[in-house]
Amino acid sequence: MISLPEFNLKLQEKIQKAKRIILFLHKSPDPDSIGSNFGFLRYIKEYNPNSEIVILSVDDLSINLKNIIERYSSTLITKIEPANFDFQSGDLSVFIDFAEIHRASRVEGTKLPDFVDLAIIDHHVIPEINSILNFIETQNISASTIVYKLLLEANIKIDKETYIFLILGILGDSGFLRYRDSNFIQSLDIIKKFCETFGTENYFELIAQIEKNMPVEEFLLEGIYLNNLVYDEKNKFAYTSMTLQERQDKEVSLTYSEFINGATVIRNIGEALFSCSITEDKKEKNKFNISLRSSSGSNFVVRDIAVKLGGGGHVSASGAQIEAGSMQEAIERVKSAIHELNELRTTSISG
User: Fold this and answer.
1) Residues with Cβ < 8 Å from 190, sequence gap 6 or more?
2) Residue range of the domain that includes 266
3) What are phi and psi of 47, to 5 degrees?
4) In terms of domains, do 167 and 246 share one?
5) Which tens digit of pLDDT belongs to each residue from 175-215?
6) Coil, helix or strand for 216?
7) What is the pLDDT of residue 344?
8) Is residue 59 within 8 Å of 257, Cβ to Cβ?
């Protein structure tokens, strides 16, 4: 595997030579997708300050994330399906917080043109990938943490706005520092350095930007998740679901992008070791999005379930997307994967 110093030098060279740099937000952008990409702008501007930078997103952002971007950055996001984007010779594409184009596109079979260079920065457990340059560190809680380390490696001074985006990403992927993290002290140290440099008030201002003025739609969606809550006492997990019809019955537009997923809403029910939400995708027919979260204090590795369903992620926070003909079929598939893993664990322990 390539070292960070070697990756830094090679990436610098690619950025300096690029005519245009294309960044991608993954589908349903979360705080780490935003934080890592907008934090990476500082790196780009250090080595190619005059380059054209384009940030692509196939989906809308939640209102809270839009407000944070508007408050702290002048860079705009281009909403477009990557399969329809006009790539040009000399483009450098950078995937941050994911490693495969299908994570950023809703068109099956989408590929980058052969003439476009690709660099990858990610922290997920992923299959073998094919790119000119990649740096994967799975022990990091967020992609924003890797971008922070990259900036330090390059001796780039981190300004207030860059810090804010990187901390946004760390808070998002760590559940506001609640999820287990092998490099937890590193996450705390980044926040500590920001507070020492710019003051604690700026940190709490960011927290307020994330949490305040939550739209009523957010609570209506949370109500659906709570209404559909099921607690499996035998297997010690909770799950919930939401169909498009249930969403429409509450008069929540399909264009509204929620900030909190269902697994987080029901995360610490009873003695549950973990939680799961199954949500019908807003744009892709017969597709269901699965979110998994370990409960506070639980050592349960939800990533094992996500991998069994064809997804991945972190020890305490993972996800997948499955195909099913109905919500009930999707629920049964998820429950079956959970029960199979529990049986394997029981057999392993007894054996």
Assistant:
1) 145, 148, 163, 166, 167, 170
2) 216-350
3) -110, -15
4) no
5) 898 877 778 899 999 999 999 999 999 999 999 988 887 89
6) helix
7) 62
8) yes
Residue 238 — φ and ψ, nearest 5°?
-120, 145
- What pLDDT does 348 receive? 45
According to DSSP H, which parts of 228-308 are helical? 244-249, 262-265, 303-308
Extract the tokens encoding 281.
Answer: 């995708």
Q: Are residues 117 and 130 in the same domain?
A: yes
Helices 200-211 & 160-173 angle (0-180, nearest 10): 50
pLDDT at res. 315: 85
Q: Of 185, 211, 237, at which residue does a domain stop?
A: 211
| Angle ∠(95,286,263) on CA atoms, nearest 5 | 65
Q: Which residue has the tokens 């010690």?
A: 236
Do 141 and 235 lie in one domain? The reply is no
CATH number, domain with residue 342: 3.10.310.30
Q: Are residues 40 and 95 in the same domain?
A: yes
**pTM greater than 0.70:** yes
Q: Could you tell me the end-to-end alpha-carbon distance of the chain, in angstroms, rounded to an integer?
A: 36
Closest residue by Cα to residue 315 from 328, 329, 304:
304
